[in-house]
Every structure is written in structure tokens, then in C-alpha cells.
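**User:**
Everyone, produce one record:

**Assistant:**
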Amino acid sequence: MVSTRLGFIYILSIIFIGLLVPSNDNRLLSGSGITASPAVVAVVDAGIPGLPSVINICMIIGVLAIALECIYLPSRILRTMALQVFLPRYIANVDAKGRPRWALAITAVVALLCTYIGLSSTGCIVLNWLVSITSASVFTNWAVIALTSFRFHSALRARHLKLFAEPYTWSSTLWPLAFAVSLAVSLMLLICLLICAIAPVGATITAFGFFSYTIGLLIIGIFTLGYKVAFKIK
């Protein structure tokens, strides 16, 4: 169901909007007004009255849902890290209803500070660095998930165990094709980051440009190596 929703709702919507709205439309580049969104531009060009406002309302609700998710997930990650003694233990404290108050407060404060990035003259630069870190993290996460799946199935075969004998397991109908594609695409995107850093299109390589693309990979590598050295993990 997840792949179906992604395919029909998101990917097809992007394809159709890309066919309806030119990439050089001035309304997209202006960044102001209700017609700045490509979805709204497509509806305005279609001449359907009232529908642009409906789309804007749906987009606001969607952004709010993503914002709530971005508060929920990092707070639980902080609590997990505190339980594993990567952070101070008090961050793992929860209230009577199981909500990690300290983790939620830290996440909310950081999110609130990030909203003021746009007020700075260098806000766009900071945003690009954050996007680079996030992109490298997402690509690495999916590569690790795919690689872990292969290693997990290899361990089951080596011990002659069945998949459904393990708790919290389920079988993918497209395994191993789906995970192989996920691993290949993730590695390809990571390679693209390196290519953009080493040989940027239409520009010469600079230290600023190189680190703006590779900062996420460097952070992941340094922290992974530090974790293995500190805890003596092979």
C-alpha cells in the first residue's frame, strides 16, 4: 500500500505537473503570492475558480503534518540515544503518559531557531548546508537498510532459520529486487554527490563547494569511525 500511494499520489502528480507547468515560468521563480506553487500554477492555468485556494489549504495541512512528524521522530531518536548513553540520561526521562518532555523541548527549540535562518543574509547558504547533510543522511540510511536486509537473510540461511520464525519480521514480495534497486539507487546518488563536489557542472572545484556537497558524508564517516573506536566495535 505504501508503494502504491507513493506511485499514484506523489510520482504521478509530479509527472503531470511537470507536463503542465514550464520550468521557466515566472510565477515559479517569483517566490511570492499564492501562485508560487507549481500545483497552484497548473490549476490557475486551467481556469478552475476556487480550486487554487483549496489546494493551498491542503498544502498547509500537509506542511503542518510534516512539521508534527519532524517534532515526533527526532524527539524519539534523542531519547533512544540517551538510553544508549550517547546523550545525558535525563533526556530519556518521560512523563506519566510516556512523552519524552526533555527530548521534545530540545527538538522544538532547535526547530524554532531554524525558522529564523531566512532572516539572515547568509540564510540560503546555511539552508544549502543543512540540505546537503540531510541528503547524504537519507541516501546513506537507505543504503544501510538495503545492505542490512541482505545480511539478515544471509544470517537466516547460514543458520537454516525461517524468516517468519523471527519476531517482527515480514516478507517483501519483491525481495531481493526491491532492496537491490534501493541499494543501487542510494549508492548512485551518493556517487553523484561526490561527482558534484569534485567536478561541479559549469564551475571549477573550490574548497567551499567541495565541503558543501560532502559535509554530510564527512559527518557520517567521522561519527561512525568515532563510535567504532570508542566502543571497540568491528
Q: What stands out?
A: The helical segments are 2-20, 26-30, 38-46, 51-83, 101-114, 123-158, 177-198, 207-231. The CA atoms of residues 71 and 107 lie 6 Å apart. The mean pLDDT is 82.
